[in-house]
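Fold this sequence, please.
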Amino acid sequence: MSDKIKPRLSKGLRDLLPEQMLARQRMIDTIRGVYERYGFVPLHTPAIEYLDVLTGSDAGSEVQQSIFTVNNPEKEKLGLRFDLTVPLARVVAQYRELPRPFRRYQVSPVWRADKPDKGRFREFTQFDLDSVGVVSEIADTEIIAGMCDTLTALDVGPYEVRFSSRTLLNLLLSHANIPQKQGADVFRVLDKLDKLGMKKVRLELTEGYTDKSGDPIKGLGIAAAQVDRIEQFLAIKSKNRKEVFTQLYELFSDLKNAEEEIGAVEKISDQLYLLGYDNDRAVFDLSVARGLAYYTGPVFEAVLLDAPEFGSIFGGGRYDGLVMRFLGEKVPATGASIGVDRLLAALEHLGRFDKRKSTSRVLVTNMDPDLTDDCLAMTFELRRAGIPSEMYLAGGRRFGKQIKYADAWGISLCVLYGSDEKDRGVVTIKDMEVGREKAAHLDGRDQWLEERPGQKEVAREDLLKVVREMLDRIDAPRG
């Protein structure tokens, strides 16, 4: 065939092979367990929305420009969703019968046609939790607590969930004499602080600059004296949340309503202290802005302290005006989204990535055609006992090939069963990891054949009991 098609992927997209998919599924199962413990319920929405639903969402110009447009037979204007929050707002408006508060979670892919980067793709998976219909700041406190509990459950290592509020940033605009209409653009630039650093953020706020690729980054034209006031605000930092509030009250002491707005955020901090989320996990950080323009109140994001270069891996905030586009009335809402792909990339970089490649924990070898039925029966005996297992089905009965197959897929145990074992009423169970470790220190094949590292012979009737014991030992945490 001369006109073969070259297998390839479009820029910013990737395949997820079994090892990555299994790690992703385990992560999603863990997150789902936390969200359901909080009482959130699942929701599914289509990948494709009407373009006016997406483009009128106040998400900000950069996101709006990154929407993938889609054609359908009816020639309607459609687009791929860029997040899961805008479709949620559409659902709340469309299904008025949904009881409120409506507390939902959703895990789904989203698409953005922006520049791919480390841990950043054009198709990626988000896992959101949101409370719709709750005015109380307790809903925001609950989201921050849920972020902490999720990252703890995922065993990501040291992390910080940082929070602030758009209301405080609005006070900053007044403090720096910047018109409120410029707020969305200013906040979008401030959201890049961790990634770009203050020097480039200052340039983007003022005259602009040229990035590493040679692309011009247009400045907002803000005066240097105004940016000095922004830097003064951002310089308020402390691991102790109470100290940050004290300094903030002092900085904004001359602004009308400042005490009330700061107090509303301080209430969230006090509730977090009450619930045991202290300064080591929940940090009041005035630099948190979040890039999406639809946020109206508290905003939050999480970073891994051992992998800060991956940026925010979990973020969100309050968006009380998003449903208004559909209903003409404000509906209070708050939530957060975890970037599954970015977090997995960060954990792989840190070596905290579970590299199990197979769902099978046991491979029953199949070396004697006369014993195939026995091996098949053993496989189903293990499965019915809840132990993920498979029997070797490929052609060829060679022992080495079957062991190599188990090794390639990272299967924990192999069950070896031949005519000699059957005559004696036993099976041989091989611990693949122990075999690899010990074989590396043996002197040649003769010594390996003599010692058979990682193998143990047990009575046939004890197969289930011994397999369970061996898997429990393999899965036990190592000190």
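The radius of gyration is 28 Å. The first helix runs from residue 18 to 37.
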